[in-house]
From TrEMBL, chain A:
Domain of life: Bacteria
Organism: Pseudomonas extremorientalis
Native organism taxonomy: Bacteria, Pseudomonadati, Pseudomonadota, Gammaproteobacteria, Pseudomonadales
A GO MF term: nucleotide binding
Keywords: Nucleotide-binding
Name of the featured protein: Molybdopterin synthase sulfur carrier subunit
A GO CC term assigned to this protein in UniProt: molybdopterin adenylyltransferase complex
Transmembrane segments: none
Record family assignment: Belongs to the MoaD family.
InterPro entries: Beta-grasp_dom_sf, MOCS2A, Mopterin_synth/thiamin_S_b, ThiS/MoaD-like
Pfam families, per the entry: ThiS
Alphabetical GO biological process terms: Mo-molybdopterin cofactor biosynthetic process
UniProtKB/TrEMBL annotation, chain B:
Region of interest (Disordered), ranges: 128-150
Name of this chain's protein: Molybdopterin synthase catalytic subunit
Keywords: Molybdenum cofactor biosynthesis, Transferase
NCBIfam families registered for this protein in UniProt: PRK10678.1 (NF007959)
Amino acid sequence: MSINVLFFARYAEAVGFDSLEMEGDFATVDAVRLALASDPEFAVLNETSLMCARNEEMCGLDEPVQAGDEVAFFPPVTGG
Amino acid sequence: MAIRVQAQAFDPGAEVNAMHAANVGVGAVVSFVGYVRDFNDGLDVAGMFLEHYPGMTEKALAKIAVEAEQRWPLLKLEVLHRIGALEPGEPIVFVGAASAHRQAAFDACAFVMDYLKTRAPFWKKENTSEGPRWVEGRHSDHAAAERWKS
């Protein structure tokens, strides 16, 4: 299945781009994260303060994912 | 309820006036305005850039506003947030809550700001005297949001 992965702010700078298409079987958002984080290029995804969203809704790492989903990883938000 | 995410500057005074202009049943308006400071965490700040997650930003703010409207009897609720480049002294965010009596407006305004701080996908990058830096999330913001859980 195909998942669209987005990175924002400091994470986008750390990995060098802000989106990528991933192919593979992923049960959860955390499975997507782990598949990426095994590559040192994505080490920033190991930060304990990491936040994530699925299809534009904030979620937990245990959130199930489906083909075609948009999954986003980002550092703690700092608006306001 | 009105949600606006915009690069354009805004006038907080005009926003406050608009909160009750169309409804004489409004007895109380509470507003919060957040501004860019020229100093943060020990460094001079010459300006900042506000990144966001287009699409999710509007949804996240609307979700917070809907929850506020369910919790308090509001006559009007407005959330306005800047994105892009901002200079010190410029307003970043406006939250206005209007109700018949003051307590609902006070509480709803504080609730929306506390939730916005921890749940809306904005990130600030400051131009400091030592170069650009991302602003780090604050633990006190999470404690502030927690108080509305009960």
